[in-house]
Task: structure prediction
Amino acid sequence: MPKKSFMEMTKLQRMRYSLSSRIFRFVILGAVLLGVVSLIIELSLYTIAVAEQDISTAFNLSRNASAIMYKSADIETISREVMKRYRSLSEEEKADPFSESYKARFYDLKDWEDYDKILSVLNDFFESSDVYDIYLGMYDRDSDAMVYIADPDSNDSYDPGAWESVNHKGMEKFLNWDGTGMLYDIGYIDKYGWMCTSGNPIRAGSGEVVCYVFADITLDNVVSKVWMFVLQHTVVMLFVLVLFGFLLLRYMRKTVVKPINDITTASRNYSADKKAGIRNTSHFANLKISTGDEIENLAITVTEMEDSLQDYERNLTKITAEKQRINTELSVASRIQADMLPNIFPPFPDRKEFDVFASMIPAKEVGGDFYDFFFVDHNHLAMVIADVSGKGIPAAMFMVMAKGIIETQCMSTNSPARVLENVNKMICAKNREKLFVTVWLGILDTRSGELIAANAGHEYPILKNPDSDFEVIKDKHGLVLGGFTRIKYTDYTLQMQPGSKLFVYTDGVAEATDAQERMFGLDRTVAALNKAKDESLQTILETVDSDVSKFVGDAEQFDDLTMMCIEYKGSSQE
Result:
């Protein structure tokens, strides 16, 4: 079949590969195979019947002839005389049964009165039947020969004493016959072709077989009848085949091909209408297919499918509009969230004691991570980075609440631990959704470089002092905010020197995962920082983000990725 769709075929190809032509070819092939099988079976039965009929005719002919000859002539005497003379000959004398010297030994037997009677009876049966030959003969076991006693065939007669070699198995079949059934043997003779020899024994008074009346029939008659049968059967079969194929093809076109083509046309029209934007169609409902089989079931199914698709399209239109509205709102929410975080750098261009840079890349439209930095008084800068549990809108809303409370509480005390304790109590008081937030909070004295910090279940900060690499500060962790009300947190102090840089981040950095589910990890984070340790704060964060992106590759971003870095430059630069 051509490697193209049915729609792409030419008209001639469609006619060749159509369902109608396939059904017709299948019907013809099936009918031919059925006809051939039936012909073989019928031919076998007919051949056997014709052969049995001819064999029966020959056998009955030989049996009737033997009965008449037994009463009209002394067959025993002449038969014994012929066999006596035959057996008295040497092998050299038997070599040529058609030589004059051989015939002379039996010639006088033809003058016997009984011989003429035998020939007369045999000739009468020969002329009144369709047998090839009827004759009198006897087997000689010692020489595997059949010796002729009398043969009336004027065209190809055998004189008394003439012999011919016979099949030993066939000879034994005649000699050992018990009198039941028909006596015959079929064999191929070079001179005559396929022949069937049937016979009936003539016995002496003692019961001894003295000779056989043989009747030969050629199987050419059977073959001619068989060929005639084959011709007649073939003609009838072709007529029936053409008629059956025509009627079946007509029926299949009406009940199979046409309904399928109608469904195909309806499908094509349905597709064209959908491309043109036409709705509320009823292509399949108008087919009115009632074949009462699987094709009718298919028509009902596609009708229901069309109705379902139209309902789906109407619902999809509503859903799409709703999704567009939600996406628009999420986009606005994302911009609002971005605007809530400090995003102008440098944020305090008139303050020379420090520099700070931060970034947040949410995993969804909005995220739960946040960072912030603000002055609690003229000399103290508060820095916070946090990660709310969960993602999306709930986390973003919780993040707004936590960010506002932290900033408010930082105005009342310079102790990050006290701030976290107060914030935790306030969150726990109104936290029905059981969300929590990890927080690192530090307050930097811009005059001395002293940094007081506290950690509520957040990632370790990473510090770089002048002339050294970034190193992890494994500070003491408290529990996350929002878990339990009565939680105490501990302040710790870091002494920032001019040139010191502090990097804080959320778990979206270290736990970034590639396609093999390997994590970026803290070691790779430190290595990325040290690659750009002497660069600007923005370059440092961009280097970490680039290394994370290369590591993750095509894997989906699983968590928000938030980073903040501050460099203390010293009060002398104020």
Remarks:
- The mean pLDDT is 84.
- The chain has 14 helices and 17 strands.
- The two ends are 86 Å apart (CA to CA).
